[in-house]
Amino acid sequence: MNILYDLFLASYRILIRVASLFNDKAKLFVVGRRNWKTKLSSMTGANDSYIWVHCASLGEFEQGRPLIEAIEASHPEYRILLTFFSPSGYEIRKNYDKAAIVTYLPLDSRSNAREFLDLVKPKMAVFIKYEFWLHYVAGLKHRNIPLYLVSGIFRKEQPFFRNSLFGQWYRGILNDFRWLFVQDQDSLDLLRSVGITNCTISGDTRFDRVLSIANSSQTIPLVDKFAAGERVVVAGSTWKPDEELLARFINNNGDVKFIIAPHEVSETNINRLGQLLKKPWVRFSKADETMISGFQVLIVDSVGMLSSIYKYGQIAYIGGGFGVGIHNTLEAATFGLPVIFGPNYSRFREAREMVSLKAAFPVEDYHSLDKVLLGLLNDQQALRKSSETAKNYVQEKAGATRIILNYLFPGDRKDGDIS
């Protein structure tokens, strides 16, 4: 099986190099790993002690971020080495200031894993959610360096749980982890059903992250002026199908304001969205406080603001549900906003749970969107109940970071902590 794994990675290496000739993301993937050993050697210090945290991409980074920042704050004797597999994670977070080193992970091979670990000599390693690289895992095990999986989530369709030679081989990788911190009971039960016992439920560190975002959210004077005294719906990370439904609702209702933060903020997309609207609208970059209150729709044409904007709304619409899947619902819920989204949400556990609690509401078309939005806007008691439920859901799920930190550093435990 190891030979087949190596052949697969060798084939992947060839294919990604070919793709890099005409695909920008593939080019970043290849170029970013060139001369990796020389570059990493120049960044590491012989007397430094590293904790290595690896994320596949940006989403996994956001899950690992609370733990990274907790370690950085409580254990300054360690430096954080942060690696990414995907350019979409590395390119956005390459200047992340809580990590001493941010770099691409060299492709998994015996030689790369050996040279990487010999160079870094991490004191421990933390992989986030889904990462199971054979040679890195085996190399850490061989060196007796503890390896942990954080915010892991497992499904029965994964190869670990197949009753085959490949399934047996693949789940053997899990035994080389010192401990697996999983999100839910289903994941724990699946692991134990195949004899994996080095695991426990810690929950999802994303809840800690969104609470941190809410507690440190910035006041945005322009948005404050726009929203003052008004009923406001915040639509975040929207795509074309979402925007077409929302525009129809906006055009039919003049007594509620909308803040729309599209997933794509290009000039072309902003103009397309504006053309759908028959009500007064303004771009964030073109507005000022003297005139913004006269508009019904504010379109946010820059990135990085959405998590702070949610606090100005009473209801959130989360985009992506008419495509491959919804975007982050927790950033809105932590501010006590009931969330609305399209029908493709079943892969997201928090969305399913909030729907069952009536803190979230899926819609399939304009008719259902109109019914849900007007139902919440015109029934203050229902809105208040959904709002409280959404906020409590996030608060009750928080705490995974402390559980994991207590395990990694037992000496940090305080009275009352749960190990």
Question: What would you say about this model in short?
Answer:
The protein is α/β, with parallel strands linked by helices and 419 residues long. The chain folds into two domains: 2-203 and 399-412, 3-Deoxy-D-manno-octulosonic-acid transferase, N-terminal domain (Rossmann fold), CATH 3.40.50; 219-397, Glycogen Phosphorylase B (Rossmann fold), CATH 3.40.50.
Q: Which fold name corresponds to the CATH topology of the largest domain?
A: Rossmann fold
Low-confidence regions: none
Major sheet characteristics? 7 strands, parallel
CATH superfamily of the largest domain: 3-Deoxy-D-manno-octulosonic-acid transferase, N-terminal domain
Rg calculated over all Cα atoms: 23 Å
Share in helix: 40-55%
Query: Any idea what the CATH architecture of the largest domain is?
Result: 3-Layer(aba) Sandwich
Structural class: alpha/beta
Distance between the termini: 37 Å
What is the residue-averaged pLDDT? 92
Number of strands: 14
- CATH top-level class of the largest domain: Alpha Beta
Total domain count: 2
Shape: globular
Tally of individual helices = 19
- The percentage of residues in β strands lies in 15-25%
